[in-house]
Design a protein that fits this description.
The complex is a heterodimer of chains A (111) and B (111).
Chain A lengths: L3 E4 L2 E5 L4 E7 L5 E7 L6 E6 L5 E4 L2 E5 L5 E6 L8 E8 L6 E3 L3 E6 L1
Parallel strand pairs in A: 2-11
Antiparallel strand pairs in A: 1-3, 3-8, 4-5, 4-9, 6-7, 7-8, 9-10, 9-11
Chain B lengths: L3 E4 L2 E4 L5 E7 L5 E8 L3 E10 L2 E4 L6 E3 L9 E3 L8 E8 L6 E2 L3 E5 L1
Parallel strand pairs in B: 2-11
Antiparallel strand pairs in B: 1-3, 3-8, 4-5, 4-9, 5-6, 7-8, 9-10, 9-11
Classes of the chains: A mainly beta (111), B mainly beta (111).
């Protein structure tokens, strides 16, 4: 079945450093979504990528969707302590039904 | 507009007991899903539904039942609780191919 792998599992950075998490799917996706979960909270939607090769930016966050629609990345420039949390990618298959999540990358930022 | 609501917030069960986790949404979403979250495992899909009367299995369906008699409600039933089902359970809803809105979660402990 469809699998979504995400690396790294943990990332510890100094405030101001950059951060990247990578996501790979075993199958071609119709879209990929990114979520952020703060400690003790629930996942909150960040963005959805639909087109092959798509790049979207939200302030210091840059999201990319691969040309083959099987991989994606999230890059944060100059991390801040407010970026702390776990970032999940989630891939939706071509049937538009179930959403399969990666294992998440837990980001900690040292001030 | 309450979004996605889940009850209870916390529950402790003994091995072999059964219970139902409640989930409701007031956004008229077609899609509803149940996930469990365990440390290092990310969010794993248990069951999902693409509309009233339609349900399907996710990645880890064993030990759980669901039904979708109305658009608003999607209860998750644990038939005979086991310690391996200790987890945080999230319900989510979405429109077709759209972002998922998560409930606040139910923290379940099985002794």
């Amino acid at each position: 079945g469809q699998q979504v792998m995400q690396i790294p599992q943990y990332q510890h950075v100094q405030e101001g450093e950059d951060f990247t998490t990578y996501c790979n799917s075993s199958t071609t996706l119709s879209n990929i979504q990114w979520y952020k979960q703060r400690p003790g909270g629930h996942p909150v939607f960040l963005i959805q990528l639909v087109k092959s090769g798509e790049v979207k930016k939200q302030k210091r966050l840059t999201f990319q969707f691969g040309e083959a629609k099987k991989n994606s990345s999230l890059h944060i420039t100059a991390t801040q302590t407010t970026d702390v949390g776990t970032y999940f990618c989630a891939g939706q298959d071509n049937q538009g039904g179930k959403l399969i999540f990666g294992q998440g990358t837990e980001l900690s930022v040292k001030p | 507009n309450a979004g996605v609501t889940q009850t209870p917030k916390f529950q402790v069960l003994k091995t072999g007991q059964s219970m139902t986790l409640q989930c409701a949404q007031d956004m008229n979403h077609e899609y509803m899903s149940w996930y469990r979250q365990d440390p290092g495992m990310g969010l794993r899909l248990i069951h999902y539904s693409v509309g009233a009367g339609i349900t399907d299995q996710g990645e880890v369906p064993n030990g759980y039942n669901v039904s979708r008699s109305t658009t608003e409600d999607f209860p998750l039933r644990l038939l005979s609780a086991a310690p391996s089902q200790t987890s945080v359970y999230f319900c989510a809803s979405s429109g077709r191919g759209d972002t998922q809105y998560f409930g606040p979660g139910t923290r379940l402990t099985v002794l």
